[in-house]
């Protein structure tokens, strides 16, 4: 296995793949990390995938890792959706760049934890070429989630630095990536979810409700949709969940 640090178009990333096939076309996963995390914190996923013959690209999100601008958590929270939407936009570049370098075999998978899972669900609404996805502790309900975040800020006495019109425009922009409003764009692609029922950071209930609704869309291909729920787990993916996610991605990228 080989791990190298690279910059693709100014995006710092870890590039992980089997050493013997590092420069050949391989099934590929782009893996997005969580809020306040960084690319190297998900190397255990990359390790499991590379063992199965999968190439993994782990980029640093805007304002994270090597792209940090030393913002405190409140400042970073105010930029949450800018970070998510930037990652969705940059995914298109990473995909194109990998294709130009002849690194990808077929279409790539996308995965992520927490903010990375939220990013993954948004990306599925705009990129039909995503072959499969694994969402750990993610949420599809962009508009509802953004409203809840703003309400929490305001309840805590923090005045948001946006006008009413800017708020309206922001919610309209997020609606374009809201999977709950654009279920048809998922198009029965293989989707894996993991979520702990005790998660107080990204609530379990909305994502599980979305999965239950999605089952109607996957009636003809129920094997393409999986949700692992862990009753005692909070906002941290269990080893069981990590292994199941990597197994899912590898299987659907190589079948």
Automatic annotation (TrEMBL):
Residues 98-250 form the Peptidase S9 prolyl oligopeptidase catalytic domain. Keywords: Hydrolase. Pfam families: Peptidase_S9. GO terms for molecular function: carboxylic ester hydrolase activity; serine-type peptidase activity. It comes from the Bacteria. InterPro entries: AB_hydrolase_fold, FrsA_esterase, Peptidase_S9_cat. GO terms for biological process: proteolysis. Transmembrane segments: none annotated. This is Esterase.
């Amino acid at each position: 296995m080989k791990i190298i640090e690279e910059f693709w178009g100014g995006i710092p990333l870890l590039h992980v793949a089997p050493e013997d096939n590092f420069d050949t076309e391989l099934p590929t996963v782009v893996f997005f990390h969580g809020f306040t995390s960084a690319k190297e914190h998900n190397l255990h996923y990359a390790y499991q995938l590379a063992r199965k013959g999968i190439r993994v690209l782990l980029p640093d999100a805007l304002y994270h890792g090597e792209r940090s601008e030393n913002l405190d958590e409140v400042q970073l929270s105010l930029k949450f959706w800018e970070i998510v939407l930037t990652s969705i936009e940059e995914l298109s570049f990473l995909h194109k760049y990998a294709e130009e370098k002849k690194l990808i075999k077929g279409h790539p998978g996308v995965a992520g934890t927490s903010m990375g899972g939220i990013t993954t669900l948004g990306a599925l609404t705009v990129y039909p070429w995503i072959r499969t996805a694994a969402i750990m502790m993610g949420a599809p309900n962009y508009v509802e989630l953004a409203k809840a975040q703003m309400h929490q800020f305001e309840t805590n006495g923090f005045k948001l630095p946006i006008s009413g019109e800017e708020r309206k425009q922001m919610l309209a922009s997020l609606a374009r990536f809201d999977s709950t409003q654009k279920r048809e764009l998922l198009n029965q692609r293989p989707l894996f979810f993991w979520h702990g029922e005790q998660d107080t950071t990204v609530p379990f209930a909305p994502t599980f409700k979305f999965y239950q609704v999605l089952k109607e869309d996957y009636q003809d291909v129920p094997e393409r949709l999986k949700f692992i729920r862990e009753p005692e787990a909070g906002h941290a993916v269990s080893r069981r969940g990590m292994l199941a996610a990597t197994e899912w991605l590898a299987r659907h990228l190589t079948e």
